[in-house]
Amino acid sequence: LFKPANSSGLMPAIVGIHGGGWRKGTKKNFGRHARYFAEHGYVAVSIEYRLSGEAPFPAHIEDCKAAVRWLRANAEKYGIDPDRIGATGHSAGGHLASLLATSSGVKELEGEGGNQEFSSAIQAAVPMGAQSDFETPRIRAMTAQPGGSEIWIQFMGGSLDEQEALYQLASPHHHLDAEDPPQMFITGERDNTDTHAVPIRTSMVELSIPSGLLIIPEAPHPFLPEERWRNLALSTALYFFDSYLKTTE
Predict the structure, then answer these.
(1) What is the value of pTM for the model shown?
(2) Where do the H-state alpha helices sit in the chain?
(3) How far apart are CA 92 and CA 127, in angstroms?
(4) Model confidence at 5, in pLDDT bands (50, 70, 90)?
């Protein structure tokens, strides 16, 4: 957990979620980015979650929701405004950030973690390199191949054809409704086009939910390690979070 130096009063918070194909990575992977947000006026946390080798979906999102509830339960201790919490992450973490944004109130994804009396809803999300719709033709074809995609099969326990209901449960787009918060999608030009989030952004327009898309020129899927791409992504995310999580003076 990172806080601005000499902070006072209640501040918005940001949950940072690492990537790694839902099966690897630690909170250290998103720590430097959480520190960036703390340097710009947020209480920022980089969290861990159970990985695919440890537990099947929905354990991953259950742990992310537990982290949001924990922030609200400890809001007074850490100077957090419980009504202004955002989430961001890259790749698998981006998917989980988007799912946090759309699945408030979905009982099947809450889990049995602590602080159940608090809400796991967030007020803004910036998914990076994220799959926001799990029912695309690309995912169906990729997971149906002999052997499928190991990452997807391990995460979801089978192909889209075999686990249709579970893929729907894991799909941010599937849960979208008019009460959901704004989302800003960031992706690399060389990443697959599913990360452009066209279906979910189209639905967000229809529901009058603010959304946006930044495609970083020349960038591949893992763009955060490269300084020029990382700076653009984080500054864009900061501007978006400032627009929706910081009160107007």
Answers:
(1) 0.96
(2) 31-38, 59-73, 75-78, 92-102, 137-144, 150-156, 164-170, 172-175, 198-206, 227-245
(3) 9
(4) confident
